[in-house]
Design goal:
Distance between the termini: 14 Å
Number of strands: 5
Oligomer: single chain
Mean pLDDT: 83
Largest sheet: 5 strands, mixed
Order of helices and strands: EEHEHHEHHEHH
Strand order of the largest sheet: 1-2-3-4-5
């Protein structure tokens, strides 16, 4: 559980709480103890579980902000990863079910559909993916990670992309909830959520 210490850290008073990867009942229980400011969970065109598992509905019901981590699908939605060898030998993604065998190939098809829409809009796949997350509501903040300033600048440019209802429909058709092949983690099970 993350916390942000307020104006009086000496007194040990916590003013804002955030939690990560919590199930709806855990979010409600935590919010009853102390108002939760933010819930952080993976959300992207590649990981849309929060739309179906009531996490998003719960935070919205309680007025909690949503922090979407990995909004670029662990880099897959950039369109730059075309084969497993594009990843360093020690890259953790090599062991992710979504980057394995047939899952990789199926997910590449999804990325290619996103790339096509991005090309039609004259934006990068990353910008389109971030614009989609941003279009999900004012209560959603994506936190893309990057190692290069040029990618940071490219990501920031996604703020200027306005997606029409037609754009959003096309994106949802290209990358519908549940379309990604493979679990997010090798050890995914309901116990871990």
């Amino acid at each position: 559980m993350g916390r942000h210490v307020g104006a009086d850290p000496e007194a040990g008073k916590v003013t804002h709480l955030g939690i990560s990867e919590a199930a709806p009942e855990t979010i409600r229980r935590a919010h009853r103890v102390h108002p939760v400011t933010a819930v952080q969970t993976e959300w992207s065109l590649w990981s849309r579980d929060v739309e179906d598992n009531d996490v998003l509905a719960t935070v919205r019901d309680l007025g909690i902000g949503f922090v979407a981590y990995s909004p670029l699908g662990r880099g897959f939605l950039t369109g730059d990863i075309r084969r497993l060898d594009d990843l360093d030998p020690d890259d953790f993604r090599r062991h992710s079910p979504r980057f394995q065998g047939e899952n990789f190939e199926k997910n590449l098809e999804l990325v290619d559909r996103v790339r096509q829409i991005a090309s039609e809009r004259d934006v990068t796949p990353s910008q389109l993916a971030l614009a989609w997350v941003l279009a999900q509501g004012d209560d959603v903040v994506p936190i893309p990670g990057t190692k290069r300033r040029s990618y940071l600048e490219q990501n920031i440019a996604a703020l200027d992309i306005e997606l029409s209802p037609e754009d959003l429909r096309a994106i949802d058709e290209a990358a519908p909830a549940g379309a990604t092949a493979g679990d997010r983690y090798a050890d995914m099970s309901p116990v871990h959520l």
